[in-house]
Write a structure and sequence with these properties.
- This protein has 187 residues and is mainly alpha-helical.
- It contains 8 helices and no strands.
- It starts with 15 loop residues before the first helix and ends with a helix.
- Helix 4 crosses helix 5.
């Protein structure tokens, strides 16, 4: 979303299509006042070609011709009401939907969608539905070993880690290194 010059609507944020429509409707007001396409282009910060195209549309169909049109293309397979039902079912979790663990996969989600709506979707279409229409993102479960022993981990952190972190004692007898100063001096 972007902030636009909203014509006195109190700093309200407009989506890009709404901002473009507001600009075209402002152009219609200026055309109605008798302004030329060049003046409208300069006033709204658009190209003269756009202003001429808007003037031609406004001349043929009035203000309605400059309004926002519905998006073209195939209509969605799921209505908004169906999508709300699917989202509610998915939020209940995989266990509540009859699966043996609470891990969602695209195939499992497709099964729930088909059971609730009768619409069969491919996994890629399920992902598109979740991401674009519901705004969901990928969530991966944290991996943990089945044999994980919390008590043993706590014991290790309390006793072993401090010893390891402390490091070796300084210059123990019997240790020599060609890089240590004591070793070089004894040569």
């Amino acid at each position: 979303m972007s902030k636009t010059n909203d014509g006195g609507r109190g700093g309200q944020e407009l989506t890009r299509p709404a901002a473009c429509e507001a600009r075209r409707l402002r152009a219609a007001e200026l055309f109605a006042q008798g302004r030329s396409a060049a003046e409208v282009a300069a006033a709204l910060g658009v190209s003269p070609e756009s202003a001429r195209r808007w003037r031609a549309q406004w001349s043929k169909g009035g203000v309605a011709a400059l309004g926002r049109r519905r998006a073209s293309g195939r209509p969605p397979k799921l209505s908004d009401a169906q999508l709300a039902g699917v989202e509610e079912a998915l939020l209940q979790g995989a266990l509540a939907n009859g699966f043996d663990n609470d891990l969602w996969t695209l195939d499992r989600m497709a099964q729930v969608i088909q059971r609730l709506t009768g619409v069969r979707l491919a996994p890629t279409s399920v992902w598109r539905l979740l991401h674009q229409r519901l705004g969901w993102s990928v969530q991966r479960p944290e991996r943990q070993a089945k044999e994980r022993d919390e008590e043993a981990i706590a014991r290790w952190v309390a006793h072993e880690w401090p010893r390891i972190k402390k490091g070796h004692a300084q210059a123990r007898p019997g240790l020599s290194s060609s890089t240590s100063r004591a070793s070089r001096l004894s040569r």
